[in-house]
Write a structure and sequence with these properties.
Radius of gyration: 21 Å
Largest sheet: 7 strands, mixed
CATH architecture of the largest domain: 3-Layer(aba) Sandwich
Order of helices and strands: HHEHEHEHEHEEEHHHEHEHEEHEH
Number of strands: 12
Length: 377
Amino acid sequence: MKDETLVAQAGLRSGDAKGSVSMPIYQTATFRHPGAGQSTGFDYTRTDNPTRRQLELEISALELAHDTRAFSSGMAALTAIFFLFRSGDTILLSEDLYGGTWRLLEEIFAPLGIRGRYIDTADLEAVKAAYDPSVKALLIETPSNPGMRISDIRALTHWARERDLISIVDNTFLTPLRQKPLSLGADLVIHSGSKYLAGHNDTLCGLVCSREALLADRIQAIQNSSGAILGPLESWLVLRGLKTLALRLERQEANARRLAAWLKSHPAVTEVFFPGLEGHSGKQVHEAQATGPGGMISFRTKDDAAAVRVIDRIRVISYAESLGGVESLLTYPLTQTHAALPEDLRKRTGVTGNLLRFSVGIEDWEDLRDDLVQALS
């Protein structure tokens, strides 16, 4: 069954005894048992819940995963992954990455002895040079946030497997409809399900997808013990959002292609970062591992003041954090998503005062263009 059918029918084949087309919301903390030593398969919602389980099954089918676990947020999902490691371990990470990932590792896990080493994962030789025996994992963002750098998932995960490292890919920007990292060799895939999967900026969700049973069991044990589970209502909201993912993503991508090309030709814009543009340094690698460029664009204005003017002038596009929803959002990474990064890392990755990140929505593209016309003037 093709992905477009899977998402359109998300929750339809839940096995609900009453034949509900929409997956029911099992808003319960606990489940009664038929008798002594008997169970329906569900005991307590922290451990498992039918609504959450259905969402996890749908995502597993899309990501070609052995198992998926749904968490209360993307950061909760990432926390569970970092709990796989011990004091003295080092994790290699894409240097151009979401600022919250850096903050979690450096402020919470570094004091516990788990270290991060940030490198350009678009450069395989740089990754190899960063290895030492303390390295236990490799975490890749591709396309990266916010620089849209492309890392070769096949090459990196093959290298990681040769060294018995856990390879992790953040697939939030592209979703499994455009990129399937587990099929390319990754061990774990992480999503902020709050973004494209839910799609309406109305709920928080995190997902961890495991390629094999051993890691899946460890993630499940960490989640059950720590309790950072996605609630039944939020699970249902993500299931509902999934139903229109294919349609939303198709429109967002079409809008992004047009707007990226238009921005590239605008005299007030000095650089545009979008994997679908000719001349993008990672375009060839991206097209070998993904089926579309996604709906995220980053671009630079001539100076910091011009970027601030754009933020102040936009009317159709909203100035807000987050991405992937039906509404177009403009984000200022320097003071929002990447404010936690140290200055040297921001400079190294190009997170400067003239950089804007644009999550393209499903509005009419000409309305979005016209809003940028007046904002950039």
